[in-house]
Amino acid sequence: MNASALLLLSSAFLHASWNAIAKTTKDKEAFLFVAMTVSNFLIVGAIAFYTQNFQAGNPIIFAILSGIFEGAYFVTLAWALKQSQLGKAYAIMRGGAMIFVWIISTLFMGETATLTQALGAVLVLGGIVVLSFPDISKDSEKKNKMDRVPWAWVCAMFIGGYHLSYHQALHHGAEPISLFGVAMMISWPFLWFAMKDSRKERVQAVLKTEWKKAVTAGTAANLSFVIFLFGLRVSVPGFAISLRNASIFFAIVFSVILRESLTRLQIIGAAVVGAGALILSLN
To answer: Tens digit of pLDDT for each residue in 199-253?
Structure first.
């Protein structure tokens, strides 16, 4: 397994972990705001102590776009987790983003794929499609009404947007930690405004009852994104987001831990995603 594959798989696990933590919380907007505040403190500390040459990329517009897409992602993530099970919403978000990025990177960024990469990507995509199938059990009508996830598809577009923006910023000389710091500072207020009302009270409630979860989620999110940027710097966008989608498999595992009901199709889909990620990582 090469270095970029290992980085991306590690990032995938951490990403699914903090999403799973967020799923267990009551007030998701307020919780994510607190968690990202923790992440911001960590990234500022990393920049202060470990980044000798602060460089967010030139032109800086790509770093700014990364932050805007990141902020929109956090907000729509909170809404998507409210609407659906972790496993299914996560699959739609990551899978939809993969489709978006592969189309853009192939048509406009000159990316080509080997046969092995193409096979791995197809398997990942196939697993995502299977995971997105509706339940056709006796209780399907009731279940499907509860399990619709339109915000997950919107979220997927924002994931693809920040992925491509990060890649362009890195391509133009951005240092990963510096880039992430700029993006996070721009994205941070999005969650504050998404809360709309009683912001201070909601944040205080999270700090009082779920601060340990917030610290854990913020730390995992921070590590996930930074590791991802280092992996993205040494790989092409389509490969990176496809392998990063191994997080779907991890999300299904966490879904089981959270006692969310899984259909046979979802279990099969998770296995297919895992196989595709393995093929991609061996290339």
So the answer is: 999 999 999 999 999 999 999 998 888 888 787 776 766 667 667 777 888 888 8
Q: Looking at this protein, which amino acid is placed at residue 134?
A: P
**CA distance linking residue 190 with residue 278, whole number of Å:** 35
First vs last C-alpha separation in the chain: 8
Predicted model pTM = 0.81
Give the residue extent of every domain in the chain. 3-282
Distance, CA of 166 to chain centre:
13
SS3 173: coil
Task: Outline where 51-175 has alpha helix (H).
Answer: 61-83, 86-108, 115-131, 140-146, 150-171
Asked if pLDDT for residue 78 goes beyond 90, the answer is yes
DSSP H or E stretch at residue 203: helix 199-209
Residue 251: how many CA atoms within 13 Å on its side-chain side? 32
Coil, strand or helix at 175: coil
SS (H, E, C) 124-156: HHHHHHHHCCCCCCCCHHHHHHHCCCHHHHHHH
Q: How far apart are CA 8 and CA 104, in angstroms?
A: 20
